[in-house]
Fold this protein.
Amino acid sequence: MTELAVGLTQLGERLAALLEVLQAEEQALRTSDADGLRALSPEKERQAAEVAAAWSALTGSLGLPSDAPPAAVAEAIGLRSDTASNTRWAEVRTLIDRTAMLNRLNGRLIEEGLRRTTAAMTVLSAAAGQGEVYGADGLSQGLFTLHHDIGEA
């Protein structure tokens, strides 16, 4: 296997692993699974670092800087006229696009959750400040009036 083939294979494997983590992150975001998100965070960071290292190795093998854009990598691979490498690059490029799309989606889900939480906190803070709905202990007040304790039946 050529250095280019190895680099493309490794990058594809790292991207696929990151994609799996992003899919799990999406599920956790959609179900508001804070514990799941907390557990996924270090794995996402690790996988992203491995993708960056694989990208740097690939671009280095092509004589490109590590911050070279995918278009420059595609051009460098295309100049080699190696059908297998071009095919593998197309697969890697699809993984890059899917990973970027899912990362953007997860970012939007995070922003949406943050907006919802901020709006809820604003409502709750305003109500608590008025003293009409929430007491100092954070419990609702004035919604039910019990005339005796439950133990006094």
Q: What stands out?
A: The longest helix spans residues 83-130. Residues 3-118 form a domain with the Methane Monooxygenase Hydroxylase; Chain G, domain 1 fold (CATH 1.20.58.300). The mean pLDDT is 87. The chain has one domain: 3-118.
